[in-house]
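Lecture 7, part B: from sequences to assemblies.

Below are the input chains for today's worked example.
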Amino acid sequence: MNLRERKKQRTRDALLRAALELFATRGYEETTVDDIAAAVDVSQRTFFRYFAGKEETAFFVPRLAEALVVDAVRARPPGEVPLEALRRAVVESWDTIHEAVEDIVPIDLHMRVYRVIESTPALLAAHLRRAAELEEQLAGIIAEREGLDVDADPRPRIVVALFGGVIRVTERLWSAGDDLTMEGLRRLTTAYLDQVGPALAGNWRAEPSP
Amino acid sequence: MNLRERKKQRTRDALLRAALELFATRGYEETTVDDIAAAVDVSQRTFFRYFAGKEETAFFVPRLAEALVVDAVRARPPGEVPLEALRRAVVESWDTIHEAVEDIVPIDLHMRVYRVIESTPALLAAHLRRAAELEEQLAGIIAEREGLDVDADPRPRIVVALFGGVIRVTERLWSAGDDLTMEGLRRLTTAYLDQVGPALAGNWRAEPSP
DNA sequence: TGTCAATTGTCAGCGACTGTCACTAGCCTC
DNA sequence: GAGGCTAGTGACAGTCGCTGACAATTGACA
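Predicted structure of the full complex, as structure tokens:
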């Protein structure tokens, strides 16, 4: 790797860290691109040569996580029923994600940024759009697994929408609570996924949930 | 109603129409606030006195529709199972929505704008965030119906997330297709909702869907 | 070492907003 | 019906995100 390349990598990293650190401490809207550039001592123009926009820095880590989830779903054995494949893929990929994130940014910083994402309207909106794109991708993968045409059969998109909905609910509750550990997220998510059946099937009043 | 009040109402309406018309023909990003203000012959500053932002004009009609859906869910007889209540509320409120929209903006214009919303990344993101807020509200209503605590019992949020997910899928498919009628949306949505059970239950390969 | 190409800074400009302030037009009272 | 009062408006200046253009710099490679 060149000196030039290394230098680029360093500024990129520095910009990303500075941005996330500022978002986490001061807030997203309260941080200007000039602030980020100044923290790394480059011009504002240079920031925009590395990142398409302020938003892109906030979603750098989530983007990585999404890619890992997609891989994990692809790697699931074809014997599993779709919902099961999705569930195992996500729950099991969290460990991988944890490690991969640490290589880029302290996991603690990432979690503080994640809270900012969930509580900043502009970022939350962007997050949900990304999630929608991810769901579309997953629906395609599920359809392929089952040998179906996504556009002809509604079921792949339905399962993924259901699954994605539950994941988003648990992500939100998790980020709003105090237990910001991976273990806490895993517990919450599996508990919610276990309730999918009961939520659809039964008479709630007759059978209260734990 | 005052002359003053009437005048205000007229500028508000004119701004809204001008904005939607421009969005539908030229596109959202291609329309500047100056364009909208110029079309009504007021200053840009005045536009911002009527609307919090360009985005707000695009979501004026959807906001109305959401309010009607909430009302419709509240009005459902308590005997219905949650998913059934949601389904009937939404499907039946479309007629009400149709009328209410016509009072403000030609329904045809609204539909063209809706297409723009679904195909403009910034607007789609905002739309999804609004949908998330609506889901949170509906979860509260459902929980109340069933006499549950939303934060203690996962099921209200799960059903609503599932339902919302299916609705969003069908909205997207509908807006991307050619049949932009209410009837088309109703058919598509009911067909998809009918597939929720099969999507979760069965072995897809053994029982292909229609 | 000198040339070439990649990286960067500077500057100018657009579009969405916001605050400020003077001005105008409708309202209300005498 | 003239006057003052105030809500509504326009004009102006400024912030912030972002982009294009051009010149200056810095590493790469012969």
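Note for the exam: Residues 3-54 of chain A form a domain with the Arc Repressor Mutant, subunit A fold (CATH 1.10.10.60). Keep this in mind when comparing with the next example.
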